[in-house]
Specification:
Length: about 425
Amino acid sequence: MSEKINFWDGKLIVPDQPIIPFIEGDGIGKDIAVHSLKVIDAAVAYAYNGDKKIEWKEVFAGEKAFNQTGSWLPDETVDAFREYRVGIKGPLTTPIGGGIRSLNVALRQSLDLFVCLRPVRWFKGVPSPVNHPENVNMFIFRENTEDIYAGIEYMYGEEDTIKLRDFLIHELGVNKIRFPETSSFGIKSISKEGSERLVRAAISYAVEQKLPSVTIVHKGNIMKFTEGAFKNWGYQVAEQEFSTQTFTWPTYERLVEEKGKEYADNALNEAREAGLVIIKDVITDAFLQETLLRPQEYSVIATMNLNGDYISDQLAAMVGGIGIAPGGNINYLNGYAIFEATHGTAPKIAGTGQANPASFILSGAMMLDYMGWNAASDLILQALEDTITQRKVTADLYALMEDASLVSTERFAELIIRNMK
Ligand code: NAD
């Protein structure tokens, strides 16, 4: 019997036949969703000999919803994700005008999906611009609800902007606005609760998955009270809530000061050998360099919204996967999660049967992992990698690979199913 996924005592309770809502998506969403769902179904059927099965429930957003109901994001859709807790979606057109900045942002905000999780790994055979893409294996925890992304912006010349400018200058004594007459403003808000829950989620993930480190990426040297505070709150979470599972960089520095470098190095090595998660931090610009030079030194990344946006695309490009990178938006406190293809609607190739379904399929694999159905997820990763290694790929990868055979969206999905062992 099909049932809802529940959440109890901090954990998802997943029945054998969960009802899972999905949004097909606009543009190439129509081409990729149907075939991707078949791949996910096949993996579940193989992995559990038919004992588990997803019952998909289509819900509407974007153009399909607008044409049927006059609303880009009907309340029933948000309600369905709330009721069934875990879901998946294809790309959505951003409506022009109408007061909605982005449907994705609206969905994330209405369910308070505060983590944007992007795993970045290389699949054998995928063309990459770096020499050793196999060294890239990271999990980006990007804060999803705060930062300059909240959209608190004021356009120069407007009445509110002038009020804000005058308040800054006359009430707060700000004298650093270089061109006050023509300045626009954006407000960056970073809270203690928002920072703590993000870093807590990243550390919990590293502990559960037995990963070696969490790196807090920030520009706190310049933005001391926002990004700098994020770093400090992050270290506090590690030291106060995970003291037996982590070893933090401030602890290392304290030991250097009190007992010398050799002693501190030994303590760090012992922590590593004991399987403790090392919590460190890096300034964003250095991080972008470091990940190109020494990607193997980074595992889980905890960062704020804007940094997370840049980092996600840079790392995805390093593994050649900017078009196939998966993502998940998660609230670990109540279990709500929506997994999503991270690319857009690719209107130019919509309806041609050429789109690469890998981002949707890999988002499905992330969803299965999140549900604890890891055996099915592993099958998808193995079969996708085998298909790419056999050099049978869709047009986007075909254009970059030598000696590859071009296949359609549907055929690519069929080959993945055939490659499941
Ligand atoms: P896009 O990702 O749709 O396209 C960028 C380029 O990548 C195009 O050349 C496209 O053909 C190619 N591409 C993207 N996905 C592909 C796939 N699966 N297979 C093969 N090629 C693929 O980005 P865009 O053109 O900037 O945006 C188009 C629309 O999508 C806009 O309305 C935008 O707002 C929306 N969008 C939605 C999401 C989302 O829902 N998550 C994300 C980004 C953009």
